[in-house]
Amino acid sequence: MKLTTEQGQEIEFREQDIITFHDGIFGFSYLKRFVLVREEEIEPFIWLLGIDEPYCALPVLNPRPYFADYPSSFDPTTIARLGLDSLDEALLLVVALVPPAGLGITVNLLAPIVINHHTMIGAQIILSNSHYQAKEPLPLAATMP
Amino acid sequence: MLILTRKAGEKIIIGHEIEIEVISLSGDQVRLGIKAPREVSVYRSELYEAVQAANRAAAQPTREALGKAAKELRKKQ
Description:
The complex is a heterodimer. Chain A is mainly beta.
């Protein structure tokens, strides 16, 4: 399967790479199907690409190297809803806000993206009773190797 | 918008499965109890809107900006 991005880039993916977000993601609830696209030049970021029209591309990254012990707590019913026994089984990502100059990146720790990569079902979850912010500055250096 | 008047302890029911109870009132604050099926998510609107805005702001950064940010992060590791 193929997709051409707004920037004219061709992305190829397989049917089994499609992650279904039954509730979409916030602000783009019409988007239900996504793929993760890894590119060397944007590592450690990954594109989370909504493949339904009109298309949407969000840079996401694994928060754990930057925020040890994140998230400090997680609602067990949410984990169960995704068919998971614990958060450790999930692919955990956060959306990054990258300013045009590329500096001063913030990440949305308030609403992580959780993906069950066995069932390919994902959801964006608001950590309602937490101290996490939607615009948390991303430390430049990872806290863990 | 439908507007209903309720007292503490009274409820409203939405559809067949969602129940909202006024638990208590104190000053300008109302405590609500919400019963809903597991698949129905309940949010405080300010959090919901903050996350919507954050996602919309984060979408479609330029490749140049993202590439530069990525390079900066890799450099510091």
